[in-house]
Amino acid sequence: MKLSATERDTYTRDGWLLRRSVYAEPELEVLRDASEAVVAEVTAAADREESGRAFRLDNGQRFQFGRGSLIQWEWREGSREVRLLEPFSQLHPRFAALWDDARLSEPAAGLLEVAAAGPFTCKLNLKRPLEGSEFPWHQDYTYWYARTPEHAHEIVNAMLFLDAASEANGAMRVLPGSHHAGPAPRDRQEASQFLADPAQIETSREVLVEAPAGSVLFFPALLLHRSAPNLSPLPRRAVLLSFQPAGRPRQELLPWRPERVHELP
To answer: What's the first-to-final CA gap in the chain, in angstroms?
Structure first.
């Protein structure tokens, strides 16, 4: 599971590394079933009286707390489709076990250049057929800076594709080398103030990351990336585990201070 010299050089240069078909189909079936069970449980809980607080941003995006996770609903008004859950690994033992899976943790430790990697946060990312919405240009660093400004750059993502990712179903697009430039200028016209300014991005250099199911994409906090809507009849489900040097507190234990974003470009 350790990195080859070529993989390390590729990651250092481009800011992303794709390992194809790391997980076999029987393993993926278990994870897909677990993801649907978790979504059904969280959705049902959100409809009950004990559900957590719901809120929306100025741009209309809808959120709700439930079962120890933040639910991000699909953007379409009235939709009950889950777009994203964070964190989510606590909701199913199969997901909790992924933190100790050497296929994810060992490369992450190598990319962080530490002896061992531990959890920071995790997301269940869903793009439902014909409804999964886009996610504009952004860096994860910006969101993590609001939690841990001194360590936000020392986090690496491992994105496991539960379904094949293609242009049609909203595969991720990355801007190679963008992690070398540090925090990207933010879009000051956007409600959250966390997204990157597309007018200041060389979008002609973007790379579409298409991959078979079971592949794992590693990328750092500062890499600019986005994804298009899912216009296909096929799902695009993915598990994202964000690793940091072992021993540091998880994201949910750190205070959320969104005003820190104004310290960035």
So the answer is: 37
CB 14 within 8 A of CB 217: no
- Give the tokens for residue 20: 């194809």
Residue 117 · residue 245 · CB < 8 Å: yes
Tokens of 122: 């995790």
Tokens of 225: 């990336």
Residue at 150: amino acid letter: E
Residue by residue, DSSP assigns 232-255 as: SSS-EEEEEEEEEETTSPPGGGS-
Q: Decide: helix, strand or coil at residue 160.
A: strand
How far is residue 152's CA from residue 140's CA, in Å, rounded to a whole number? 9
- Domains, in order of start, for the chain: 5-263 (2.60.120.620)
H-assigned helices in 131-191:
140-145
Per-10-residue mean pLDDT, the chain, length 265: 94 98 98 97 80 74 87 86 96 98 98 98 97 95 98 98 98 98 94 93 96 98 97 97 98 96 96
Instruction: Give the amino acid at 169.
Output: N
- CA-closest candidate to residue 239, choices 40, 89, 46, 27: 89
Q: For residues 211 and 161, is the Cβ–Cβ distance under 8 A?
A: yes
Which residue stretches of the chain are H helix? 5-14, 25-47, 93-96, 102-112, 140-145
Number of residues written out for the chain: 265
CA distance 173 to 40: 29
Q: Report the alpha-carbon distance of residue 116 to residue 105 in Å, rounded.
A: 8
Of 152, 174, 154, nearest to 228 (Cα)? 174
Q: Specify the DSSP class assigned to residue 48.
A: S
pTM of the model: 0.95
